[in-house]
Amino acid sequence: MDSGVFSLYSNFVSCPEKYVTVCIILMYVAILFWCVPWMMTSSIPVVLLIALFLLEKEALFAELRSYRTEIVLVLLILCLGVVFSWLPEKSVKGGYDFARGIVFFFPACILVRRYPEKVKSLFWPLLITAIIFFLAAAIWVYTQNFAVPRGFLKGLISCFRHYNAFGTCTALLAGLSLVGLLFHDGALAVRRLAWALPVAGMALTVVSGSRGSVVALLVAIAVTVGCRLKRGRLAWFLGGSTLLAFFLYLLQSGILGRLLPGWYRGGDFTSGRVLIFRSILDAVWEQGRWFGFGINSYRYLDVAQPLRYRLMLPHNVFLEAWFSLGIVGCLLAALLVARLLFRLHRRPVHGMLYYSGLAIVVFYLMRGLVDMKLFSQYYPAALAFGFGLMQGAGSPSSGRLEQ
C-alpha cells in the first residue's frame, strides 16, 4: 500500500501539466456551481490547496508567508467569535466553515499567476457548459411544474433548495460572460456567439425571481463597464444609476410581481428588512456591545428575532458581523479588510481575469447587503476567490492591460 501511495505521488509531481488543468477546471466548477446544494463543491478549495502543496509547494509557502499577518488576524477574529460566544459549540462550526471557505484565495491566486493562459483558455468552455446546465435545469423544472400555480418557483426551491441559489449562479454567469466580452481578445465570431451568454444568464436570473441577484448583477455590470470605458464614465454611471433606480421602483411598487409570477411577494419587503436590521443593532448595543453574541449564533438565539417566524440569518453580512463580533471583532475585521485592500494589485496584467475577480467581489458584496450568510463556507469562499483572481492577475507596480 505504501508503494502504491508513493507511486501515485511520484506520478502526480512528475507530470504536473495535466493535473494543473484538472485543478483549474475544479476551480471554475466550484465558483460557477457554488450555490448548487447537491453538487460537492464545498470540498474543492481544500482539495486544491492539497494539490498545490504537491505541485507548487514553494509558491504556496511563499504566499502563506506573505499573508501571515492577515492569517493571524483571521484566526484572532474567529477565536474572539468562539470564546465570547453565547453558543460556543455552534460558533466552532461557523468558524470552521468560514476557514474552509477563505482558503480558496490561495489556489485562485497561485493558479492564475502561474498559469494565466491555461486559465483563460478554459474560461469560455466552462461558462458555456454552465449556462447550458442551468438552461436545461430551468426547462426541466418548468416542464415538471408548469400546471401548478407558481410552479416554476416552487420547482426551483425543491431542486436548488432556494430560488436565490439558482438566481445567484445564473447572475454570476451573466456577469462573468459580460466581463469576458469586454476584455477578451478572441476572434469576432467567438465574441458574437458569446453575447448569448449574458443575455441567457440575465433572463434566467429574472425569471427565477431572485431580486437581490438581479440588483447585484446590475451593480457589477455598471462597475465593470465603467472600468472598461476610457471616456464617458460619468454618463454610464448616471445612466446605470437611473436604470437601477427604475428597476428598484418596479420592484418595490409590485409591478414586477404582476408581470412575472416569480417576482410576486406577499407583504412589504422594505419594512421587514428595516425591522430586522433595527432589532439587531439595538440587541447588540444593549447586550453584546463589545464582543457580540458569537459566530453562527443568530438563528439559535431569541434576541433580534422581531418577526413571527424564526429567521435563519440577518439578511445582511455586515450586520451579521456586528451581531457575531461586536465592536472589538468588527474593528479587527476592518483592520483585516484595510490590509487586504492596501495589498491589492491595482494594475491588471491579464484584464479578463482581473476584472472577472472584481465582478465577483462586487456581485457578492451587493448580494450580502440583503442576503447571504457571512460565517458560512460559501460567501467567504466567493469573496476569497474573486480577490485571489485580482491578486494573481495583477501587478503591484507595473503591468499592461491585456484586452
In short:
The protein is mainly α and 403 residues long.
Give the helices and strands as they follow along the chain. HHHHHHHHHHHHHHHHHHEHHE
Backbone CA Rg: 22 Å
Count of helix runs = 20
What is the residue-mean pLDDT, rounded to a whole number?
A: 83
Extended strand count: 2
Return the domain count.
1
Structural class: mainly alpha
| Spatial sequence of strands, sheet with the most strands | 1-2
- Helical proportion, percent range: over 70%
Keywords:
mainly alpha; transmembrane helix; two-stranded antiparallel sheet; O-antigen ligase; transmembrane; 20 helices; globular; 403 residues
What does this entry look like structurally?
The protein is mainly alpha-helical and 403 residues long. It has one domain. It has 20 helices and 2 strands. It has helices spanning 2-14, 16-32, 44-55, 57-66, 68-83, 88-102, 105-114, 116-121, 123-145, 151-160, 163-183, 188-194, 196-208, 211-228, 233-253, 255-259, 269-287, 317-343, 351-370, 378-393, and strands at 347-348, 394-395. It has a two-stranded antiparallel ribbon. Helix 2 runs antiparallel to helix 3, helix 10 (151-160) packs across helix 11 and helix 14 (211-228) packs antiparallel against helix 19. The protein is globular, with a radius of gyration of 22 Å. The protein starts with a helix and ends in an 8-residue tail after the last strand. The model is unreliable at 397-403 (pLDDT under 50). One of its GO terms (molecular function) is ligase activity.
